């Protein structure tokens, strides 16, 4: 693990448990929970707000649509009775418009019909336009009192039937089609028709009812809106009831009991859309300070009407470095543009402070070998910005814990206990009033 764990403290501290737990997922709408394991880091994350539904006068999103596949168009017919108009999408160029009824069908016309559960968006490429829809979903729990679904099936619908392409263009189209087939197998996508999954609960509470009454796509945090680009054509056409925000990450929750008290625990991890990539190929931060594979994790616990929220974030070490992938088991690291490291790191932590408040940065890498060079660069670059609200802690996870002694993580807790308790956690009363 060549990453760092940053704990935004203003959102508080409820508890840190240093042992591995894993509870199975459920298939219905009951809850489930799991402790997060990021490489060598083991921690719980999160907490949220209100138990009841949001008061949202904006148009309800369509939850079930009948997809008609005509020769010249796709037609989406709402079957949830939330609207009378149907959405027509041209199979020639992807243009969209609302219609009052289905096209006339002759004796020889037999369009395919399929039930879908939402439109992810529209992908515009050089080789044509493609529509992405949800063909299957699974209810995995609830967030702020509203059902949360996992995307089980996707389908990419081509809207370029009129293109007269050359042989070279057709080859390119074939390559894109293979990539689109891979997109259909994208995992870890979650959505809710009624609740904003992209924003932590404390932020939602602070923004108030006026913000929560906006359409979900307007509420969405761009950093965690996985299909933001795909929604743009739908936004341009003002198709508000089809604008379904999607996050990539994980969502798990459970109903359990603690000392005979019923407790609902929810864990949601949101993967940032900036500087994403596969492990080893995507490392460090860019010049703007955005760390590779940044994830915001929130734990929500509810009991006796009270709701608490705790948030942690993680990402690659926030300076310019890379790992050149080769045939070796552990490719070497290379710190590039060393002189830029302090500025990049300062931008990264300034952004964290702006969004979360005080931060404890926990560095988990080894102190020797290639990782040791990264640790030294990290420690040296962050030193000028350390203050009461930015604290740096190094914890050699591999040396201290190895593969089995996770109880030794209590040593890390001892190092940051005072700082965590000082900033506490976000807590709401049974009347949705902020306590701390």
UniProtKB/TrEMBL annotation:
<dbReference type="GO" id="GO:0043812">
    <property type="term" value="F:phosphatidylinositol-4-phosphate phosphatase activity"/>
</dbReference>
<dbReference type="Pfam" id="PF02383">
    <property type="entry name" value="Syja_N"/>
</dbReference>
<dbReference type="GO" id="GO:0046856">
    <property type="term" value="P:phosphatidylinositol dephosphorylation"/>
</dbReference>
<dbReference type="GO" id="GO:0005783">
    <property type="term" value="C:endoplasmic reticulum"/>
</dbReference>
<keyword id="KW-1133">Transmembrane helix</keyword>
<feature type="transmembrane region" description="Helical">
    <location>
        <begin position="7"/>
        <end position="25"/>
    </location>
</feature>
<protein>
    <recommendedName>
        <fullName>SAC domain-containing protein</fullName>
    </recommendedName>
</protein>
<keyword id="KW-0812">Transmembrane</keyword>
<keyword id="KW-0472">Membrane</keyword>
<feature type="domain" description="SAC">
    <location>
        <begin position="180"/>
        <end position="436"/>
    </location>
</feature>
<dbReference type="InterPro" id="IPR002013">
    <property type="entry name" value="SAC_dom"/>
</dbReference>
């Amino acid at each position: 693990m060549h990453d760092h764990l940053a704990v935004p403290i203003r959102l508080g501290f409820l508890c840190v448990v240093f042992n591995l737990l894993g509870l199975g997922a459920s298939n219905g709408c009951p809850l489930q929970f799991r402790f997060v394991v990021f490489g060598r880091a083991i921690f719980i994350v999160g907490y949220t707000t209100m138990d009841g539904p949001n008061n949202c006068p904006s148009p309800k999103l369509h939850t079930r649509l009948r997809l008609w596949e005509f020769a010249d168009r796709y037609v989406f017919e709402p079957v949830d009775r939330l609207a009378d108009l149907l959405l027509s999408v041209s199979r020639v160029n992807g243009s969209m418009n609302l219609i009052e009824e289905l096209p006339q069908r002759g004796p020889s016309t037999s369009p395919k019909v399929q039930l879908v559960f939402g439109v992810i968006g529209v992908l515009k490429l050089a080789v044509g336009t493609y529509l992405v829809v949800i063909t299957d979903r699974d209810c995995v729990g609830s967030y702020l009192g509203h059902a949360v679904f996992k995307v089980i099936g996707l389908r990419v619908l081509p809207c370029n039937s009129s293109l007269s392409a050359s042989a070279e263009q057709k080859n390119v189209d074939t390559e894109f089609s293979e990539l689109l087939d891979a997109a259909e197998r994208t995992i870890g996508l979650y959505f809710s028709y009624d609740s904003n999954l992209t924003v932590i609960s404390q932020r939602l509470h602070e923004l108030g009812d006026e913000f929560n009454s906006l359409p979900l796509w307007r509420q969405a945090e761009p950093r965690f809106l996985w299909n933001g680009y795909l929604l743009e054509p739908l936004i341009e056409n003002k198709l508000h009831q089809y604008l379904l925000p999607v996050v990539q990450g994980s969502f798990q929750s459970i109903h359990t009991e603690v000392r005979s008290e019923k407790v609902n625990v929810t864990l949601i991890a949101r993967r940032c859309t900036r500087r994403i990539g596969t492990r080893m190929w995507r490392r460090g931060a860019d010049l703007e300070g955005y760390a590779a594979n940044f994830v915001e994790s929130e734990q929500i616990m509810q009991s006796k009407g009270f709701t608490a929220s705790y948030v942690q974030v993680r990402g690659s070490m926030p300076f310019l470095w890379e790992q050149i992938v080769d045939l070796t088991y552990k490719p070497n690291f290379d710190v590039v543009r060393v002189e830029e490291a302090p500025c990049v790191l300062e931008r990264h932590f300034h952004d964290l402070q702006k969004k979360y408040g005080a931060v404890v940065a926990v560095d988990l890498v080894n102190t020797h070998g290639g990782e040791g060079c990264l640790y030294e660069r990290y420690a040296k670059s962050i030193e000028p910005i350390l203050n009461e609200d930015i604290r740096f802690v190094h914890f050699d996870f591999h040396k201290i814990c190895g593969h089995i002694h996770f109880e030794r993580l209590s040593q890390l807790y001892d190092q940051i206990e005072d700082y965590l308790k000082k900033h506490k956690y976000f807590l709401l009363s049974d009347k949705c009033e902020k306590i701390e």
